[in-house]
Amino acid sequence: MPHFIIDCSEDILQLKTAGEIMNVVYEAADATGLFAPNDIKVRLQPYQYYRLAEHKKNFLHVFGYIMEGRTTKQKAGLSRQISLRLTELLPDISFLSVNISEFEAATYSNKALINPENKGKDRHFGL
Questions:
Q1: How far apart are the C-alpha atoms of 23 and 100, rounded to whole Å?
Q2: Dist. CA 18–CA 12, nearest whole Å
Q3: Distance of alpha carbon 19 from alpha carbon 27, whole angstroms
Q4: How many Cα atoms occupy the beta-carbon half-sphere of 63 within 13 Å?
Q5: How far is Cα 87 from Cα 96, in angstroms, rounded to an integer?
Q6: Lowest-confidence pick of 15-24, 51-60, 112-121
Q7: pLDDT at position 127, please?
Q8: Which CDD domains match (predicted)?
Q9: How do residues 69-85 score in pLDDT, each as one tens digit?
Q10: Who's near 98: CB < 8 A, 6+ residues apart?
């Protein structure tokens, strides 16, 4: 936690590598101080098939999923920092957007939480 999933048009990867794009998102998230660096996860999914508005050629959207508990101001700052850093990296992109959504702690589960040895229900248990 958190997860940042980048959807983009395939041609974006002709402008910058997947690694460069993912690193910018990772570093922007890390720079906020909201997350432990070893908790941040970033992945990228390019799309070959998509339709955009007339005269628009490409897109990139970051879906950020974080554990509940941050303020609206913190989430807005996170979204803005990722947007700013990606705009610096890809200044000529047609559509660039970011949204941040929250996981509800009560309904979240992972491998650590189901471990029978994890008596304290620490979601980082054993990591």
A1: 18
A2: 9
A3: 12
A4: 8
A5: 8
A6: 112-121
A7: 55
A8: CHMI
A9: 999 999 999 999 999 99
A10: 61, 62, 64, 79, 82, 83, 86
pLDDT digits (tens, 9 = 90+) for 46-72: 999 999 999 899 999 999 999 999 999
| Token reading at 40 | 């941040």
Rounded CA gap, 89 and 74, in Å?
23
Question: What pLDDT is recorded for position 79?
Answer: 98
Give the 3-state secondary structure percentages of the chain, helix then strand then coil, rounded to 5: 35, 25, 40
Distance CA 43, CA 18 (A): 9
Nearest Cα neighbor of 2 from 93, 58, 68, 61 is 68
Token representation of residue 14: 């002709």
- Residue 44: what are its φ and ψ, rounded to 5°? -130, 135
Are the CB atoms for 108 and 123 separated by under 8 Å? Answer: yes
Contact 1, 42 (CB under 8 A): no
Both tokens of 72, joined, read 């609206």
